[in-house]
Amino acid sequence: MLKIKKSLMAISCLLATDAFAQSKNFEYNPVHPLPGSSIQITYDTKGTPLSGQKSVHGIVYAYSNYNWHTTDLNLTPTGEGKFKATLPLDKDFGLAAIKFLGGDSTDNNNDNAYVIMATDAKRAGINAPSAYAGWSFLRADKQGYGVPGYFKKPVNLSDTAFYYWLNNEIMWHSAEAGEVLAVPFARSIQAFQGDAGMPRIKNIVKFLQQKDSEVNLLRARSILAGVLKDKFRTDSLDSVMIKRFPNGELAKVNAYKAYNLERDAEKKRALGEAFLKKFPQNKAYNDFDKEFRINYSNIYQTIIIIASMKKDYTPLNQYLNELDFPAFVNLHYKLIEIWHNRKDIPDAELLPYANKMFTRMEQTKDVVPADYWYLSPMQWKAQYEQFLAKSILPVQVSILRNTGNYQQALAYAERAQKFYHYKRASLNDDHAFLLNRARQYAKLHTLLERSVYENQSSPEMLALLNADYKRSGKPLNQYNAYLTSLKNPELAARSSEEAKKIMRNADMPDWTMTDLNGKEVRFADLKGKTIVMDFWATWCVPCKASFPGMKLAVDHYKADPNVVFYFIDTEERGDKYKQEVAKFIKDNNYPFNILFDNKAKGATVNDEVFARVCKAFTISGIPMKLIIDSKGKLRFLTDGYKGSPTALADEIIEMVELTKKSE
């Protein structure tokens, strides 16, 4: 009976393999390839989403030795929409799923997958080790084993099918798969058979315990705790493992818990360093680290950050190469970007560490990080450039510019623009400065015009645009018309419609505050004027970043006595903030009317007016901008800053004009 069952399974699997090979768009030879051999692939775009594409690229998701590996497949055109390629199979190859890309389209056989299974070298009619498991895992999104992004819609393989294919793998290749797949196989039995499968699952636990290695005992523990939910046996096994492996995974779990619970920074650093010394990272245990939520990169970056607070960068040199990619990006933000934006540490002091981190980041572009295993090398390089441009390059450009490293800054700015396409004002500003300094006026002209079109410019860029226009020799009296012609009318129309949607008509709380000279300014005395109020603080980075845009808006209405701007300094601590505000405004030459929020009795910050505004309109956070009509009614309230001075100025002007029209 067992022989019949095995024969039926073998025939079924063989038929499945043949079905994969037969497709009008996708063929490979030999049809039953052996691990370690090469196969010839033919792909026909006719009738696929890639029909008509002149260039097609393939991504191969290979399951070998019970692990996924992602590679690129270079295809050569053979005419009439057909392409060919040679795919070498490694010695442990079991299965490959292929996806074809062309332009912005992809083809994965309409979510049915283009799949190749290898044949067992010793047994005809049986697929090679890893093949059955790979076919199961490829479609097992529900179970958490799938390939991210391969299918357009998540494939939720049934519990029956998931068990069936894993059972085939265990039955035909128990020597190779028995230990490695023990945990997912136990889960598949539980999902498929329920209580009826418990004896088999217990036998798997017994089998693992007999193997008597820490890895297999951990696998047994995963089944006891996660599948059988047997706390008594889990605790018993824990006791055994702690005694047998005093510096093993469970001891590591307890040490990590102690590290996580520590709140004192210096003590946490000491615990983290002791943890790393006693339990150095072993990537062979990555799966168990994930199960127990042990994050080595978290420890590395925490130690680095704590040390950097005292300007001790020894841990940065020690652990920088150990960080995984996501942690690296996060560390750069905390260690470099925040301090650069706040200007609390001079860029000249940040530069050597910014350079060190940038150099290390560049070293990762040719090695796909473990967290991104589902990307091919080609895909990773493209993804890497996006990560670099989005998270690192603009900051690096700014630091290099501010420290006089102009040539390098210009090269990085042009690299970043390949991602941003002039849609980031701060990068445009740095780029424009660098091009102007290098006297690359043709490139500068393009940058300035494109930046205005995207509404991502700065006051300095507008000055450069004016100078660029004068160089052209065109009539000066036509400059304003030229500037208007550069703007994207769709952006202006969209901004106007968005402003209309958030317009309101609400009573504004009364207030009285004092200005820089100690003079009282009363809300009641401003009736008849359109008022723009901007709540900010000296410690608020986006508040101060928005001031160039607010200056453009102030300058726009400087000849209109019926539109007034007030910049209300709020939520400050200490007793020297008024002097700090006065110095900041003077140093930056801002023509702003400054008011100081009141400090309520017993309060530690001056937020009396701001608190009442927040309560009245159920909002909080600065920067906060209010537009009030001539009758004292609040018509607009916005918070935050999106990063573009010209876009902010246009937004304020649009809201002021809508306010005036509504009266």
From TrEMBL:
Chain ranges of the Thioredoxin domain: 502-661
Q: Which domain of life is it from?
A: Bacteria
Query: Which InterPro entries does the UniProt record give?
Result: AhpC/TSA, Thioredoxin-like_sf, Thioredoxin_CS, Thioredoxin_domain, Thioredoxin_ResA/DsbE_sf
Which SUPFAM superfamilies does this chain map to?
A: Thioredoxin-like
Keywords per UniProt = Isomerase, Redox-active center, Signal
Q: Indicate whether Isomerase appears among the record's keywords.
A: yes
GO molecular function terms listed in the Swiss-Prot or TrEMBL record: isomerase activity
Pfam families named in the record: AhpC-TSA
Signal peptide, first to last residue? 1-21
* PANTHER family per record: THIOL:DISULFIDE INTERCHANGE PROTEIN DSBE, THIOREDOXIN-LIKE PROTEIN HI_1115
Q: What is this protein called?
A: Thiol-disulfide isomerase/thioredoxin
Its taxonomic placement starts with: Bacteria, Pseudomonadati, Bacteroidota, Sphingobacteriia, Sphingobacteriales
